[in-house]
Write a structure and sequence with these properties.
single chain; 107 residues; alpha+beta; five-stranded antiparallel β-sheet; 3 helices; 5 strands; 29% helix
Amino acid sequence: MQKRWEFTGVSGKKYTFEVYPKSAQLPATGGIYIVTYSHPRGHLSGFQVNTLCMGVANNLNSTIEDLRQQESLAKDCWNYTCILCLDNADLRHECFDDLHAINSIHN
């Protein structure tokens, strides 16, 4: 899997997220998370990334730890977590709104 993944908001702005395996310990900082099921599309076609849920967190590590307890995400084959660390709460919410608008259309 790639170490970074780019998501595009409804505004057209691109956001580069770091990609972690589901079991990884994440930074205890604020940011945006996108829980995904990701799989290869073919030899040279790259990866298909399916958004399972996304949100804003003051502490990415503890928020994701809580999500690991949800059986519904395990049934949806959650295997990677994409994070964008943002300390500024206002900026977090602005970026989340931009990203969520487009991802809710495709989910």
